């Protein structure tokens, strides 16, 4: 059993002043014996991917408190790359990632929090928080605000469609205005496989977020369920680490070299943003994992692209979710042993166990997989009606 980190500011006569300040924030006597869970939120009214996160932060705190922890929320900055694009504002976007990493690290370490839940979403916020999580190496879980719904009445649209149309002289002002109004219909990160959604999807492969983190739309009730699951799970993780000595819940135990290879393999398979390369390398550096451009090059040469999502097509992240989500893609990669499935995840399961649990291609009854196999053992059927509907075992000699 480990001593809670937070006892540095909550235990002993010499911390009477600190406890007085904690009490002023709402702490009760019994709270000083519970794990303090820092809630790194990123609510802002500047960014559609973050406008709904104030309510989310309060919900997460409530669930943490009800689950046996003490949730303490703070906010980081969040820059919208789309709004900052095309003028000097873009100079501030990438540097903000490192400011976010520093601010999360500073807040958590200065107040000696025991664990961390990161509520991120858009472009530089998720990478910055991941960098901080690797530095801190305390129990941490991520849950994003979710992607927005695709826009358009007759066809799916997104931000890039509006930008491309505006640059095309053959498109009328009226058409551009209509696309502008339709492209971003809800809160959430932009609906295509851009940097924000790519990083939130990669977080599932990295093992730092629960299934659905990257693909459940911001407006769906299942996104609220995901917030609840993440809030409950971080309290469990804190208790496992401090009270049971389980180090497998720590970020650096989860985000291993194999996990980074999985994340990059997913990025290539799902046709994710190339900006992820920049971020994955920085996160791996903070995790003290040797992972380089040479490794990424090797992965890119052996991993196939399995899906085309906007801006490469008119399918959006919501369509990826309907098709089974990120774990459906991971399952296909696992079938060919392209990814490492024995890595740990924040769910407490290995990736292999999690893929099986989330699978949309297999039922709970393993016998069901033997139904309607037209070519057992990989043998092609050459005689009509020679195959049975179900085999108890594969007839390898049947042709």
Structural overview:
There is one protein chain. The chain has 399 residues and is mainly alpha-helical. Helices cover 45% and strands 6% of the residues. It contains 17 helices and four strands. The chain has a four-stranded parallel sheet, sandwiched between helices. Helix 3 links the parallel strand 1 and strand 2. Helix 12 packs antiparallel against helix 13 and helix 16 packs across helix 17. The C terminus is likely disordered.
Main sheet properties: 4 strands, parallel
The general outline is globular
Counted beta strands: 4
Helix count from the secondary structure assignment: 17
Integer count of domains: 1
Mean pLDDT over the full residue set:
91
Low-confidence stretches: 370-387, 389-399
Gap between N and C termini, in Å?
Answer: 61 Å
Q: Which CATH architecture?
A: 3-Layer(aba) Sandwich
Task: Report the β-strand fraction as a percent range.
Answer: 5-15%
The string of secondary-structure elements, in order, is HHEHEHHEHEHHHHHHHHHHH
* Lateral arrangement of strands in the main beta sheet: 2-1-3-4
**Cα-based radius of gyration, to the nearest Å:** 23 Å
- Coarse structural class: mainly alpha
Helix content class: 40-55%
Fold-level CATH name: Rossmann fold
CATH class: Alpha Beta
CATH superfamily, by name, is Response regulator
């Amino acid at each position: 059993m480990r001593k809670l980190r937070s006892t540095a500011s909550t235990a002993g006569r010499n911390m009477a002043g600190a406890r007085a300040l904690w009490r002023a924030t709402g702490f009760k006597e019994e709270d000083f014996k519970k794990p303090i869970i820092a809630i790194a939120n990123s609510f802002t009214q500047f960014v559609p991917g973050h406008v709904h996160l104030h309510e989310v932060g309060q919900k997460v705190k409530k669930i943490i408190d009800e689950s046996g922890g003490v949730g303490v929320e703070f906010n980081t900055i969040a820059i919208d790359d789309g709004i900052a694009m095309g003028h000097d504002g873009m100079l501030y976007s990438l540097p903000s990632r490192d400011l976010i990493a520093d601010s999360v690290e500073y807040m958590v370490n200065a107040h000696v929090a025991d664990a961390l839940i990161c509520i991120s979403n858009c472009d530089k916020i998720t990478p910055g928080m991941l960098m901080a999580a690797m530095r801190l190496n305390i129990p941490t879980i991520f849950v994003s605000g979710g992607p927005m719904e695709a826009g358009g009445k007759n066809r799916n649209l997104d931000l890039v469609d509006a930008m491309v149309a505006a640059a095309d002289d053959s498109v009328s002002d009226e058409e551009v205005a209509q696309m502008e109004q339709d492209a971003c219909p809800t809160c959430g990160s932009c609906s295509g496989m851009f940097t924000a959604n790519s990083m939130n999807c990669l977080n599932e492969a990295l093992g730092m977020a629960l299934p659905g983190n990257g693909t459940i739309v911001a407006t769906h009730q299942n996104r609220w369920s995901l917030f609840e699951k993440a809030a409950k799970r971080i309290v469990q993780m804190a208790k496992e680490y401090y009270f049971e000595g389980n180090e497998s819940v720590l970020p650096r135990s989860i985000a291993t070299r194999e996990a980074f290879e999985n994340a990059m393999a997913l990025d290539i398979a799902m046709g994710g943003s190339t900006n992820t390369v920049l971020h994955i390398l920085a996160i791996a550096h903070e995790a003290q994992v040797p992972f380089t451009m040479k490794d990424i090059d090797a992965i890119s040469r052996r991993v196939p692209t399995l899906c085309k999502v906007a801006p490469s097509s008119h399918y959006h992240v919501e369509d990826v979710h309907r098709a089974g989500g990120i774990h459906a893609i991971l399952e296909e990669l696992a079938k060919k042993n392209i990814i490492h499935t024995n890595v740990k995840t924040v769910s407490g399961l290995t990736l292999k166990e999690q893929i099986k649990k989330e699978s949309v291609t297999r039922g709970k009854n393993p016998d069901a997989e033997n139904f309607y196999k037209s070519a057992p053992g990989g043998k092609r059927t050459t005689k009509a009606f020679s195959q049975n509907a179900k085999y108890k075992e594969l007839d390898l000699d049947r042709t």
